Amino acid sequence: MAYTFNPHYFNQRDSYLDAIYAVLERGMAAKEVVCSITTGFRSIPSLRTKPGLNPYHASVADIGYGFDSVQGTINRIRMGESFPLIYEMLVFELDTLRISEKQLSPNFELAVKEAGPEVYYLVEYSRILNKQIGEMIKEAIRLSQELLGNQWYEIHARIENIQVIPRL
């Protein structure tokens, strides 16, 4: 699909892409720590067998892949690659991150259910980091909405049907 942008768009596009990339870098840093803590949960007998631990760890990993994917698309745009659905890809990837972040909370609550006092500090730290990850994703989406304007909503409406495909 061809998009028409006003001339100032091209002057500001790289600034927005840089900002989105930087926000995702901060989210990725939080994700790395959460992933380490999640792996550490496996060594705690009271948490090792909790039903939400594997889905929680998978959701955290899914977010990491999503960050990588969005950053890859940003790099492709920066390098001048142009293909018909590049902005659909950007919106799709960011919205997929939004969905993945929503999956953290219920899985996290299952993973830490009945956690002992010896790990409360890790549980609390994970909660804080999960919140930071969510904030970074929301900020990246907000920036992409500013970048694309009303076209972001048009694209999102078209890709929503793809989002309902079940994911593992």
Walk me through what this model shows.
With 168 residues, the chain is mainly alpha-helical. 80% of the residues lie in helices and 0% in strands. The longest helix has 35 residues, at 7-41. The mean pLDDT is 86.
Which key phrases capture this entry?
elongated, 0% strand, mainly alpha, 168 residues
Radius of gyration: 18 Å
Secondary-structure element order, as H and E?
HHHHHH
Global structural class: mainly alpha
| Overall spatial form | elongated
Briefly say what this structure is.
This protein is mainly alpha-helical and 168 residues long. It has six helices and no strands. Helix 1 packs antiparallel against helix 3 and helix 4 crosses helix 6.
Task: Outline the fold blueprint.
Layout: H1 7-41, H2 45-48, H3 53-78, H4 86-111, H5 120-148, H6 150-163
Helix pairs in contact: 1-3, 1-5, 3-4, 4-5, 4-6, 5-6
